[in-house]
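Hi W., the pyridoxal-5'-phosphate complex you wanted:
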Amino acid sequence: MRVPSKAERPPSVDRLARSLAETGLPHPILVEIAQAAIADGDYESAPARAEHLKRTLLQPVINATGVLLHTNLGRAPMAHTQDESYANLEFDLTTGGRGSRQRHVGELFAKACGAEAAMVVNNGAAAVLLVLGALAAGRGVAVSRSELVEIGGGFRIPDVMEQSGARLIEVGTTNRTRVADFANAIESPDNDIALVMQVHQSNFSIEGFTEAPTMTQLAGLTPPLVADIGSGLLDAACPWLSSGPPRWLKDEPAARQTLEQGADLIIFSGDKLLGGPQAGIIAGDADLVATCNSHPLGRAVRPGGLVLAALQSLALTYLQRRGTDIAFWRMASLTVEELEVRARALGTGTPTELASTPGGGTLPGVEIPSFGVAFPGDHTETLRRHQPPIIARVVENQTLVDLRTVAPGEDTIVADACRAL
Ligand SMILES: *Cc1c(COP(=O)(O)O)cnc(C)c1O
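Structure:
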């Protein structure tokens, strides 16, 4: 047997692990990587293995896809910092007694959308589960057959209904449902209908021979009306934007207007058009909100202080009408002219008109005119490997870099990475 030369001999696990220290990964993890590489007879692959592992860690990325609420990139971007201090999460500073974690943020969101009361849970799906479980367990909930939707990530209204213990009463047809269909379902005592539910067709649209009851018609029925509006647009008039509502926003249901039209309770997500952290908000009639809040499931789906603090600052920003301090609305309101100036200033690629999309399963088919740069060929892998990673998209064998979702402060990083393509 030939004795390997010094140069060929595999390094010790410890030496190999230490040579990877620059990656910043904890030593025990580097030891595992070194052991695996040596066991596979491929110790030279250890740095690549360490890099591969690093890329699985949560980290900031530059979103150059033009999809504003990119579900895979965490939906709405939001900055939030806080000190490592205690907070009056469940403590009443006036009385010195026990307080409610739902109070601070709940009251602010109620004000922001014109509701009597509001509360927060971990996400929109949890909000639907809690509302149905607290208000309709063991009873019927009437929903139009055109609204038995799947939102993505396997969230299906009929399945959530079943989990909540409520019984789904399907009403109408896929394309046409009338208020009389609901009235008939409510009249039948067997159905024992506790709630009428309207679910926004967030991520699809039905066109052609269609009909649906208005919110006002549904509100005229006897059982309480719950509207799952999905995206968390607080007010159709967008009073937080000095330029008013963007043109592409039309037909998106808004919290304030849905309540004005008679919904007793509305449900929406925190990280879609609301532009905040992952959360679900339940707003409307104070008694119904209180029933949800005191249900045992409410405890299981309650958010922590980090999310509540982030939502509180978001609610205050809305109430102060500082829309451009909310990253989603700031990006959404950039003009094509501003984006074109930035695209040309990159000094690389072909300046190109593009179309951004709201994303996040909202506003299907809506395009927002945008601007960016294009490169022939598919360079998405190279850009993904950049530090920080840049996520772009490929259309017709061209790599498109859409600047609407890139923060202006990231332009130089994008320019440097693109110049190297
Ligand atoms: C997105 C959405 C949900 C789910 O909300 P998450 O916050 O993603 O859990 C539920 N209903 C509708 C109509 C939605 O659009």
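The longest strand covers residues 350-359.

W.
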